[in-house]
Amino acid sequence: MNKIKNNIVRALFAVLLFTAFSCDEGGDPNPGGTNTGQFAGDWFIDLTDSDGHAIVSHALHSTYNTAANDNTMWIDDYENGYWIKCKITINSNGTFTATNADNIIAADQGTVTITEGKIEKGAGLSKAGHRVDKISFRAHFSYDADGYDIIYTGHKRTGFLEDEY
């Protein structure tokens, strides 16, 4: 009799344990994303100056959302290129700008203004020839009294080994 009683207690405990861990917590199972998520990612970008001289090739940059989720993003080169990390304002069509934005990486050197910014879906080619997004923009750093702009042109990182630089 004790054996039957113990088995019943074990079965009830198992049902109770299963029920406790299989409950639906409620809420939205698909919380969605940020309003700039489609433009976020890693990019391999080539930099040239206003005279067309190459400065850096295939510098890894990232674009990612800000905490505000208000059509602003960060562009960040992690000190791989021309030392840029600033907020940009991006539109739903992929165009973006920044006017006298604080350059967080080089804060003691002034601000940066970005013009002609554009992310184009499927307009770029990766190193191995995969169709990817393209990014391009001009940046003017306030400490540059000569008026030179840095021209950024690149493509989205795929993550495939054959596309890495």
Which short descriptors sum up this protein?
165 residues; mainly beta; eight-stranded antiparallel beta barrel; 8 strands
> Helix and strand succession?
HEEEEEEEE
Q: What gross morphology would you assign?
A: elongated
Q: What's the N-to-C terminus distance?
A: 72 Å
Strand content range = 35-45%
DSSP summary, beta strand count: 8
What topology does this entry show?
Blueprint lengths: L1 H20 L19 E9 L4 E12 L6 E5 L8 E6 L4 E8 L8 E15 L5 E11 L8 E7 L9
Antiparallel strand pairs: 1-2, 1-8, 2-3, 3-4, 4-5, 5-6, 6-7, 7-8
Detailed description of the structure:
The protein has 1 helix and 8 strands, in the order αββββββββ. By secondary structure, it is mainly beta.
